[in-house]
Design goal:
Elements (H helix, E strand, L loop, with lengths): L2 H7 L2 H25 L12 E4 L9 H14 L4 E5 L10 E3 L5 H4 L1 H10 L3 E3 L3 H11 L5 E5 L2
Parallel strand pairs: 1-5, 2-4, 2-5
Antiparallel strand pairs: 3-4
Length: 149
């Protein structure tokens, strides 16, 4: 029986996972509360951001969706850029991806999107910093697409 089927039937496995659901809900509430209390603040960027994400960390097909969104936007005359964490790359700092970048520097998926989509890409653990760096280097960008936001 799959986990989803077990959860939907509320069998023993689902009930045993209930404390984890409460913990997750509590942590999500604390996270929202930090913003509500002003202890954390949302960052504003000068261009719109489209976030492509999923509960699944890898293998859910987010990168092909990002590539399709970029092609759609370019076909409409917009100039999109991409920000990504750059999963699997060396380092945490911001890196502007170029055709000379390696997968070690940029991550394999951001490098692939840059080469195939011919759009500016920045990677970094801090995606807001990556976005600001990308916009400083490419002020012509109309909007950003965040891969695995």
């Amino acid at each position: 029986m799959s986990l989803q089927a077990a959860w939907l039937r509320r069998g023993p496995l689902a009930w045993s996972l209930r404390p984890l659901a409460w913990l997750y809900g509590g942590l999500a509430g604390v996270h929202r509360g930090l913003y509500a209390l002003g202890l954390r603040r949302a960052e504003r960027l000068p261009v719109p951001v489209i976030v492509v994400g999923n509960v699944v960390a890898g293998g859910a097909g987010k990168t092909p969706v990002v590539a399709a969104i970029v092609e759609h936007l370019k076909a409409r005359g917009l100039q999109p850029g991409i920000i990504s964490r750059g999963y699997g790359r060396d380092g945490d700092g911001v890196h502007l991806v170029t055709r000379l970048s390696t997968a070690r520097e940029a991550g394999d998926e951001p490098l692939l999107i840059h080469l195939r989509g011919r759009v500016p890409v920045a990677v970094g653990r801090d995606r807001v910093a990556a976005a600001r760096t990308l916009l400083a280097a490419h002020p012509e960008l109309d909007l950003l697409v965040s891969d695995d936001g």
